[in-house]
Amino acid sequence: MAGCSSRCRQGVLKLIQSLQRLVSGTLSKDNIDDELEMTMVSHRPEGLEQLEAQTNFTKQELQVLYRGFKNECPSGVVNEETFKHIYAQFFPHGDASTYAHYLFNAFDTRNNGSIKFEDFVMGLSTLLRGTVREKLEWTFHLYDINKDGLINKEEMTEIVRAIYDMMGKYTYPALKGDVPKQHVDAFFEKMDKNKDGVVTLEEFVLACQEDENMMRSIQLFENVM
């Protein structure tokens, strides 16, 4: 697919907002039931039981999410262009394109340039309702840009800089160009236990679990989901 329609982009945006309401509990059971009625008319998700077993969402939540995803994007996939458009709306004062690119790649576990409903839900399940270990593993894979199982300073700097760019000058009015690098240098000093210049998954998890401030900083992206 060359690009996602405006309707699809707006639909995915509404889907994310609906998910946030589901997770926060502000989407009432009556509303869920209303949406389920529409779900049963228009779509019968295949493999729903399997997704329920693989994620931390209930069958009702999955049905609501599936309806929103499939009705608004009939092709059943979201591409990177759509992802970037969504994040541009969430962060109008910054440039979200680079962060959206890396986040898209983290969701695109099949590495085929598109995100299916299953990919979307599996990732969100981990981010929103996974254990601390699961969230940290997902974050590690986000930072591991070249997917070699290690994080180097260049990779972490790319992600941190992308987050600063996305938040924009209104959030960080006095931000200097070398701040992301200083941020990363401090992280690496604590994470790279054997001082070999790269951080393994276990080093990453251990350092985050030992340092509450580092945990909050590393998981900043959760606030922009």
Automatic annotation (TrEMBL):
It comes from Carassius auratus. One of its GO terms (biological process) is regulation of potassium ion transmembrane transport. Its main location: membrane. InterPro entries: EF-hand-dom_pair, EF_Hand_1_Ca_BS, EF_hand_dom, Recoverin. It is found in: Cell membrane. Keywords: Calcium, Cell membrane, Ion channel, Ion transport, Membrane, Metal-binding, Potassium, Potassium channel, Potassium transport, Repeat, Transport, Voltage-gated channel. PANTHER family: CALCIUM BINDING PROTEINS, KV CHANNEL INTERACTING PROTEIN 1 B ISOFORM X1. GO terms for cellular component: voltage-gated potassium channel complex. Belongs to the recoverin family. Residues 95-130, 131-166, 179-214 form the EF-hand domain. This is Kv channel-interacting protein 1 isoform X1. Gene3D superfamilies: EF-hand. PROSITE patterns: EF_HAND_1, EF_HAND_2. GO terms for molecular function: calcium ion binding; potassium channel activity; potassium channel regulator activity; transmembrane transporter binding.
